[in-house]
Specification:
28 helices; two-stranded antiparallel sheet; two-stranded antiparallel ribbon; mainly alpha; single chain; 744 residues; 4 strands
């Protein structure tokens, strides 16, 4: 019953909190905090039961066709607790953050709670179908986070985020179809039983596409560095710290169960992990935007976790240490990004900018912000005594163990040095952020004076308390890793299909300290001899030297999907346009069909099926055979279909503007929106008539051009809100079934 309550409670909050906001704004914020705190309390109780060895399950065998299957073991209870903890703290900061940064707080509260429901559903799931349903709810509900500011950059980033989510989600669904056909089940137990089945390699790889994309792994990372900077800071903390972990959840389920013993797959994942961690770190070093740097850092840290998982795959039953490092770094990264992104939010609340050149000197004299950010930065850099060092040490030891286990493969030694170099780059960009915010002075004396005037009242007591609370776990794990972190990783081993680590780790041995020291030294050298010399100018400040053309989205993905594929489709369609005049269609195909029906005509069955219908179709083909140049078929009939399409397109435009105004911007214009398409103008005229008789709300008639690029194209908005309505329909269907079950 507790699982059902935890799934329904955020949905109830998503309805109640915005409604309370219509009465009083403080009521909305109060109910948002109450619902997230209640969810946190239930998650803590669930974690306590899982800690004592109790497993909880909830099955709905006939729901949504294949059924919904929920099961909570220790790992899932742990990550549900982390998710609820992060939501509760970020919502505590959201009131102060949104007070100075725009409205639409009701929308944020609504979709934040729906996203929480999706995240909890993912971690509760016990089969891939249930995972997919809640994964898509989560992806669609988090889209308004990215688009929240409704600036050109936010809308474009939201398009990218949604495009990657939808496209990769469909590839994942294709893999699920193939897996279902092969084994007849999508439960996690069935996947584990069929591990090593060669017929499941292709389905597993297809399913991994969507999860790797959500995790932010290269080369499907394009949404991550763009979505985090434009989203509100409380949402950025959740996007980075938690939504990426739902992607890793799918990677663990599929990779460790279906492909855990496949050496080729393990090596591919190792290469992708190293590439992701290095590329993310390089992008972080070049970035001159506070939140973008932290976003690129998230991409890099996902690479660390992937390296740990791949080492656990390649080492098999000897991969306990690497598996523990992967789980530990998942936990540590979530906590680190909660602390750092909320610190970034505290900066943005008062500075109203994320550009490092404008932020220089902001943190001088703000001791609480200084301490919280420093703890997060040192933890992310892997300084001994902080939490990041512990999990990075375990992953590093797993990589060293892999090099020792498989003799003669010097490439693993090279992988170890790539690992250390990427860790050094992490130190470099965090050192850049820290010195910029808290040690440098702003060249603009008036701006610096304004920053210093904020000392002592840059945050409310609640925000200061939240920041302090986010920093405490980082210290606890870093100082007592064997007492705090190691038990969590040991109890999570079953979910990773690997043996538990049975001994304590010598985190502070000379060898491990030396490995951490090498990374820190590399980072300091990169900062001194690259960042300060090549990326920093005394007159201009921090310079963005990353080439604009070297953007994978603009360089590859958008040209392929917006130019090449449409060109290919047009070319194929143009070629097929000449086929009606060929003998293939006019002569050979009708004769072939006639021959088939003539054969069927001799079968002793019903004349209606075997004689009359075939003769009728034959007559149609014979008729068409004599009309290759008919104006009816060549001009008039296609024109009819085009006209129907234009009518539907015009009315779809109107429907989109209405839905978009009601659910997103509230600033659409039906009265002044015009198009060169006469059908569209007619549809807008009909809308005006509906407004005059009271069937459309007045808010739809506010002036705003519908083709404003800040709000995306009709295509992207059609996809966006079509999926949004689909998600609402799924939630409504689930609630209906629950209500019917309760009545029965």
């Amino acid at each position: 019953m507790i699982l059902l309550i935890m799934l329904l409670l955020p949905l109830a909050g998503a309805v109640i909190s915005p409604l309370m906001g219509k009465v009083r704004g403080w009521l909305r914020d109060l109910f948002l905090r109450l619902f997230t705190l209640a969810e946190l309390g239930l998650a803590a109780w669930l974690f306590y039961r899982a800690w004592n060895g109790e497993a909880i399950f909830l099955y709905f065998p006939s729901m949504l066709g294949l059924g919904l299957w929920f099961y909570v073991d220790f790992f899932r209870a742990l990550y549900t607790l982390l998710a609820c903890f992060m939501w509760a703290l970020s919502c505590q900061l959201s009131k102060e953050y949104f007070a100075g940064h725009g409205g639409n707080q009701g929308r944020y509260a609504c979709f934040s709670l729906i996203t929480l429901c999706g995240v909890v559903g993912v971690f509760f799931s016990d089969d891939l179908y249930t995972t997919f349903v809640f994964f898509e709810i989560m992806s669609i509900a988090s889209y308004p986070w990215v688009a929240h500011e409704e600036t050109p950059g936010a809308m474009r980033a939201a398009q990218t985020y949604l495009g990657v989510s939808v496209a990769c989600g469909m590839v994942t669904l294709m893999g699920m179809f193939l897996a279902w056909k092969e084994i007849g089940s999508l439960t996690f137990d069935a996947l584990r039983e069929n591990g090593g089945n060669p017929n499941l390699i292709l389905p597993a790889c297809l399913m991994l596409v969507g999860y790797c994309a959500k995790a932010g792994m290269a080369p499907l990372h394009i949404w991550l560095p763009k979505a985090h900077p434009v989203a509100p800071a409380p949402a950025s903390a959740l996007l980075s710290g938690m939504l990426t972990k739902t992607g890793l959840f799918g990677v663990i389920v599929i990779g460790m169960n279906l492909l855990g013993d496949n050496a080729v797959f393990g090596h591919v994942m190792l290469g992708l992990g190293l590439f992701t961690m290095t590329l993310g770190a390089v992008l972080g070093v070049f970035s001159v935007n506070l939140k973008r740097t932290l976003a690129c850092s998230s991409m890099s840290q996902i690479g660390y976790i992937t390296v740990g998982l791949s080492c656990a795959m390649l080492l098999g039953h000897h991969g306990a240490l690497a598996a523990a490092g992967a789980v530990g770094h998942m936990v540590n990264h979530s906590l680190l990004k909660l602390c750092l992104f909320l610190c970034a939010g505290a900066v943005y609340m008062k500075a109203h900018t994320l550009d490092l050149n404008d932020l220089r000197g902001y943190g001088r004299g703000k001791w609480l912000l200084h301490v919280a950010f420093l703890i997060g930065a040192l933890g992310l850099a892997g300084v001994p005594g902080l939490n990041g060092y512990t999990s990075k040490t375990m992953i590093h030891e797993g990589l060293v163990e892999l090099a020792e286990e498989i003799e003669g493969f010097s490439v693993y030694r090279f992988c170890e040095w790539v690992f250390l170099f990427a860790a050094g780059l992490t130190t470099a960009y965090m050192l850049k952020l820290y010195i910029c915010l808290f040690w440098q002075k702003n060249p603009d004396e008036h701006r610096q004076a304004h920053y210093e005037q904020l000392n002592g009242h840059s945050m409310t007591f609640r925000s200061a308390f939240v920041l302090a609370l986010t920093a405490l776990p980082l210290l606890a794990i870093g100082i007592f890793p064997n007492q705090v972190l190691l038990p969590l990783t040991q109890r999570s081993a079953d979910f990773l299909n690997r043996p538990a680590l049975t001994h304590e780790v010598a985190f502070f041995s000379l060898t491990n300290l030396l490995g951490g020291g090498i990374s820190l030294a590399i980072g300091v050298l990169v900062y001194l001899f690259f960042v300060r010399t090549f990326l920093y100018n005394k007159e201009k400040g921090y310079v963005d030297r990353w080439p604009n053309w070297l953007d994978l989205e603009e360089l590859f993905y958008r040209p392929v999907f917006t130019r090449f594929l449409p060109w290919l489709g047009t070319t194929v369609a143009s070629f097929l346009d000449y086929i009606p005049n060929s003998k293939l269609v006019i002569v050979w195909i009708p004769r072939g069909v006639t021959a088939v029906f003539s054969f069927l005509d001799h079968l002793p069955e019903c004349k209606l099926i075997k004689v009359w219908i075939p003769k009728g179709i034959t007559a149609i083909f014979s008729f068409l055979d004599h009309l290759p140049e008919s104006a009816f078929f060549m001009k008039f009939l296609p024109g009819v279909f085009v006209a129907i399409g234009r009518v539907c397109d015009g009315f779809m435009d109107t429907a989109l503007l209405a839905v978009r105004s009601l659910f997103l911007t509230g600033r659409d214009d039906l009265r002044h929106a015009r198009s060169h398409n006469p059908i569209t103008r007619l549809s807008f005229a009909i809308a005006e008539g509906l407004y005059k008789v009271g069937l459309l709300p007045a808010k739809l008639m506010h002036p705003r051009a519908p083709d404003d690029e800040r709000y995306g194209t009709y295509l992207t908005n059609a996809i966006s809100f079509g999926l949004l309505i689909t998600a609402i329909g799924i939630v409504a269907a689930i609630l209906y079934v629950f209500i019917r079950m309760g009545v029965q």
